[in-house]
Amino acid sequence: MDVFTHLALGFGVALTPINLIYALVGALLGTLIGVLPGIGPVATIAMLLPTTYALEPVSALIMLAGIYYGAQYGGSTTSILINMPGEVASAVTCLDGYQMARKGEAGAALTVAALGSFIAGCVSTVLVAAFSPPLSSLALKFGPAEYFSLMVLGLIGSVVLAQGSLVKAIAMVVLGLLLGMVGTDVNSGVARFDFGLPELTDGLGLVSIAMGLFGFAEIIGNLELGEKREVLSRKIKGFGLSRKQIRDAAPAVARGTAIGSVLGILPGGGAMLASFAAYSLEKKLAADPSQFGKGAIQGVAAPESANNAGAQVGFIPLLTLGIPENAVMAMMVGAMTIHNIQPGPQVMTSNPELFWGLIASMWVGNLMLIVLNLPMIGIWIRLLTVPYRMLYPAILLFCGIGVYSISNTSFDVSQTAFFGLIGVIFVKLACEPAPLLLGFVLGPMMEENLRRTLLLSRGDATVFLTRPLSAVLLAAAVLLVVVIALPNVRRRVGVQA
Amino acid sequence: MVRIRHPRDFWAGAMFTAVGVAAIVLGSKYTLGSAARMGPGYFPRMLGILLVVLGGLVALRALAVDGPKVERFRWWPTLLVLGSVVVFGQIVQTVGLALSTVLLIVMASAATREFRWKEALLAGVALATLATGVFIVGLSLTLPIWPRFS
Asked: How far does the CA of residue B129 sit from the closest CA of chain A (Å)?
């Protein structure tokens, strides 16, 4: 079967009424939380994960994926209108998007962001469909040694964009791996680090950790910051683009899509790096770079296309290798696991309708976003005028009910609050939680693969270097560390971010 | 006397080291095994040692490089926000969703300086209605709405 037969199968799944509804719910919810401050996609997915138990796995994943790209879309809306990125990946859109809005071109900026994202989404959907089969068949040949090395590479990749000290970010990964050890060891049946609590024999809850570290900690942080938001109150009109604007934006969209597709597939690279890279490239190529930062349409078109392409291509490592490359993907692993689907190369053959349905739904979701959201801009703006003091108690309530409903115990709720406290400490000590979450998800898999590798090699650890593929993966991880550690590279990333 | 020049990183390093040591100590009761036959204690021990080393590196570097202080910890908002959720989890089964929601909202709202009793109570009642509609009627969650006297 070629790409298009696969996609046809996928659209068959994605276009069923029930899945269309879940894609819509996910995309709208994603846009909502992307627009609203104080709650990001990780915490939202954590909140909704318990409610997806009853759904078909494919519907659940379609909805959760919708939250992810919807959030990016909502994030760019606030970047343009109020100079505040809802999500990190759209931070760079503020530079020119907000300036366009100040010049009275908010409508054009929103349109170009939406169209750019959509075009990038179309291209990257085809890319995901084209690259996934060869990658999964390659991954099926992986032994435990290769898997272990791949996870090392993936985890190192996740710290690439961490701010501040690299060692700290790696320590967060290790801390996450250790948290993953809590609970019953599959091989010996020993309950590890359970502190005598029977609730911990199944391990710590992914939902609790994610919601605590990403949701509660952020709310508390926002309360300390206080409120300073300024909504552009002028009426937004003129969603059309002039011929000149189209001529300027089109090549930027194409280049942004290309950059996003390439960087998105790298472990840890993802949407944020892509948007920064695309913006810098446009600035270099522009006939008049001085226009950037003053409302250049390319400065909106390129990063928006890049972050959407990057976000979607980011599904490739998850779907083909079972390796999440960012915190949202780690939540997707959690979603697949609760439906008894082990993420990895076998998903494509064992659950083809899930695999291709999810991919097709991304395209459908992007189309919905563009059709629904431009007319709905007014509603999103009105939501922004809801003061934060009304908003966060409601978010806490939905988190509380969501966590409680996982297993109807107060233990999960207390556990979440505990990780909220840990999250506040992390914020104070400038430790980023995303690498920890990846470590937590990969911990048990990593231990299992290490165990198998060393069992097969009779305790000889050099197999990781003598097996060529494993050696290449580890070499790539080392190279990545060296590149990040080079001071001038870090300084440059620091300045941009 | 060694001076801590980068308090934020120093304490981060100290935290990592402490967790690493705890993992090694708590993990010492699990069978270690050998590399070829790893027991349940093997991988956690590896991670614990790694974390101690990394934490040590972070903390040592904080003695050599200048950096920001640890921001002040605001106990009151932290306590109210996290406490409101914990209390909700503890009482929702006996007190019911309606009243626990109102309590959560009022308690959480008190974390801001702009707190107003009337507004918080109103929001609590509105959200209790909404939550009952969405979660109990809509998603048919098995939670009581009102207190149970038994």
From this structure: 12
